[in-house]
Structures are given as C-alpha cells and as structure tokens.
Amino acid sequence: MSAPVAPFPQVDHQRAVFADGLALDCGTVIAPLAVAYRTYGTLNAARSNAVLVCHALTGDQYVAEPQPLTGRAGWWDSLVGPGKPLDTDRFFVVCANVLGGCMGSTGPREEMTDPEGHPLGRPWGTDFPNITVRDMVRAQKRLVEHLGIARLLGVIGGSMGGMQVLEWAATYPEAVYAAAPIATAAHHSAQNIAFHEVGRAAIQADPDWRGGEYWRDGRVPAQGLSVARMVAHITYLSEQALTRKFGRKLRGASALTFLEDVFEVESYLRHQGSTFVRRFDANSYLTITRAMDYFDLAADHGGDLAAAFRGTATRFFVASFSSDWLFPTSESRALVRALNAAAANVSFVEIASDKGHDAFLLDEPDFHRALGGFLAGCADRLGV
Fold first, then answer.
1. Is the dihedral of CA 54, 342, 381, 370 positive or negative?
2. Same domain, 259 and 332
3. Residue 74 belongs to a domain with what CATH number?
4. Is 127 an annotated catalytic residue?
5. 143 part of a folded domain
6. Would you say residue 297 lies in a domain?
7. Which among 54, 64, 130, 210 is placed 20 to 30 Å from 285, CA to CA?
8. Which member of 48, 78, 105, 159 is catalytic?
9. Do 172 and 202 reside in the same domain of the chain?
10. 274 domain-assigned
11. Same domain? 111 vs 205
C-alpha cells in the first residue's frame, strides 16, 4: 500500500452562499449552495460590462492570479488583464469554481448537509448527487444575479468551459449578449468518454480509494488520481507538440538500464500527475467527468441541435485548433452549422496550431487577436 498523501490544505475562498440551495436535474435539492468566485476589473454603473469566464475540467476560479495551493500563475492570465483581450480596464470579469468542484464551491469535499440543510460533520464524498453541465450553469446564474447583473456582455470558455458557454446560450439566451465557445463540442464523443472511464477506473482501483471514503483516515488515492491526470494530459497535447518538446530524449544516463533512466516525456507526465494530486479531489474528478460525459445539447432538445438556439439574439464566436484531436474542428463545424440553421449570428475561426487541445490556454496570438476583436466589437455595439 502506498504511503499516505495528505489532502490539500483548506483555503478560505471568496464565496456566495445561497441558503435555499439549488434544484438539480437529478431531482435532488442541494442546500445550502456555495459558489466560490473571483472578479477582475470594475462593474460599470450600467452593469453592462460583465464577462463570465467558465473554466475547464481541472481549472478553477483563479483565472488571472496565482492559484493559492500551487502559486502558479492564473490559468488564463495571458487573456485576462489590463490591455489584454479580456481587458479588465474595460470589462468586469467573473470566474466561478463549478458546482462539484473542489476549490470552494459546493462539491464532494465540502461538508455534507441533510435535506433541511443541517451540516452532518463529514464531506459529501460519493454521496454527492449526480450533476449536469446545466446544473453548473444554474449555479453560476445564481452568482451572476447575486452580483446584480441582469445580462452578461459575454460568456467565454474552452473545453468543458465551452460546454458551459453553450448551455448558458441555450438556457438563458436573454441573459447572454455574446457567447464564445472555444475548443469544445455540443456533446462528448465516445472516445472522450472512454478516456474519462480509464481515469475513473484508475482512481477506483487505487488501494487508498476506500470506496470513496479515503477522507476518513486522511489519505487520497494518489496513485490512481495521478494516472488519471497522466492519461488526460496526453489527450490535451498533439503528437507534434510531444515530439517537439521531448522526442525520444532520455532523462539521466545515455545507456538504457530499464531501471533508473526514463524518457523525458515519462518524467513530464509523472510530474503532471504528482502535482495534480495536491490540488484536486478524486471524488470531484469523478463527479465532473461524469457531468461532461452526459452533456448532449441536441439530446436535450429532441435531437435537434439547432432547436437549442432557434430565435436567439446572442452573438457567437466559435474557435477550434487544427491539431486538437480531443475536440476536433469537425465538432466546431457541426456546431456552426446548427447555429446557421437557427439563423444565429455566428463567426468561426480555425486557428493553425500544433499545440493540440491545450492551445486555447497557451500563447496563440491569432486566437487572442480574434477573440479580442470579437469582444471589443460586441462592447462597441453596446456602448461599453
């Protein structure tokens, strides 16, 4: 059995708490509801300059500042800040930790409550109810209303964040002037579900999993969670990016011993896995990957994706990346065809990049210019 790895420390996150809770798609009401969030910039007097950023699977609300557990720079600080595409001198940027997350919003590692909302002195763990991407968006809507914002200038996100953007546009079209779903799709593919299941199986096979009650003796299923992260991280990169970064380079001696020497790419993946277990909760990982897997916007509208957007006045900016095989350009084109069939105002761009799915998080000047131009144009039309 592995040595225990202590769960990551408690952090006091900025949160909005709603005593009446939230009704979920599964039929459960979860109360109270806590939504952890961060804001950047200033909300103008007309409350018309708010942009909601939706994070991806393993992201959090610290989009443009150091993450408190790791100290690493904000995951999208290349995009959010003064003079950047999401210009905080012009826009009021909001980012919330998703429902089911592990950075302050209500999720499996938060304290469980009874049906009346009374704390039970233990984490939710595997008793946390099944959630959907729509549930995540409903929780964000509560936060946006709490902040006094009736209509968002924009909702932006990549990957799972892009799924949330699409759900916002479909569920609350009157509350979204502009939507930018990036490197995403209107449903999760069978291949993506398969990769997620490998990760979940690795976590549940870890001897420290303890049926999801690893918290009882202060352990985490570190080996399984690390493998899940390693598998997922491979899908975020392209073959070209892996070859450029690592090729077949060895770490250590030049002669193969098959014992101590490892390839550079192996060392990189092990580092990704080991750092991940110190900032992410295993039960949250299972909860959120399941929500992604069940996301299917067309199925929620009688099998007709265009019906999800028919009559919408929301403006759309759809972007994909040429080497992204996790959410390939073909998925974005299918989304654009549905938006066109719904007579929506839509712009589409495929960015040439060899960085794979992760390109939306990295330094891609063409993408930054295109997104920045779209946002600035929307703001100009609204007089922001």
1. positive
2. no
3. 3.40.50.1820
4. no
5. yes
6. no
7. 64
8. 159
9. no
10. yes
11. no
Q: Within 13 Å of residue 184, how many CA atoms lie on the same side as its CB?
A: 30
SS3 263: strand
pLDDT, tens digit (0-9, with 9 covering 90-100), for 59-107: 999 999 999 888 889 999 999 999 999 999 999 999 999 999 999 999 9
- With contact defined as beta carbons under 8 Å apart, do 333 and 196 qualify? no
CB 352 within 8 Å of CB 380: no
Q: Is 284 annotated as catalytic?
A: no
What's the pLDDT at 267? Answer: 82
**Structural domain harbouring 235:** 192-290
- Which of 13, 55, 188, 357 is the catalytic position? 357
Which CATH number covers residue 262? Answer: 1.10.1740.110
pLDDT along the chain (384 residues), means of 10: 55 93 95 97 98 97 93 94 97 98 95 80 93 98 98 98 98 98 97 97 96 90 95 92 80 59 80 89 97 96 96 98 97 98 98 96 97 97 95
Question: Which among 306, 350, 298 is positioned nearest to 328, based on CA atoms?
Answer: 350
Q: Encoding tokens for residue 55? A: 């994070």
* Residue after which a domain boundary falls, among 268, 290, 312: 290
Q: Would you say the C-alpha torsion 314, 320, 324, 330 has a positive or negative sign?
A: positive
**Residue length of the chain:** 384
Query: Does residue 96 sit in the same domain as residue 185?
Result: yes
What predicted TM-score, i.e. pTM, was given to this entire model?
A: 0.94
2 in active site: no
Q: Is the peptide bond before 328 cis (omega within 30 degrees of 0)?
A: no
Q: Say what the pLDDT of residue 31 is.
A: 93
Number of H helices, E strands in the chain: 9, 16
- Of the candidates 324, 332, 353, 358, the residue annotated as catalytic is 324
CA distances to 129, 130, 196 from 26, rounded to whole Å, are 8, 7, 21
How far apart (Å, rounded) are the C-alpha atoms in residues 216 and 279? 18
Among 290, 314, 333, which residue terminates a domain? 290
DSSP string, 90-139: T-EEEEEPPTT-SSSSSSTTSEEE-TT--EEEEE-GGGSPP--HHHHHHH
Q: Do both 103 and 64 map to the same domain? A: yes
Measure the CA–CA gap between 132 and 137, rounded to whole angstroms. Answer: 9
Domain count, the chain: 2
User: Measuring CA to CA, which residue among 244, 211, 204 is closest to residue 227?
Assistant: 204
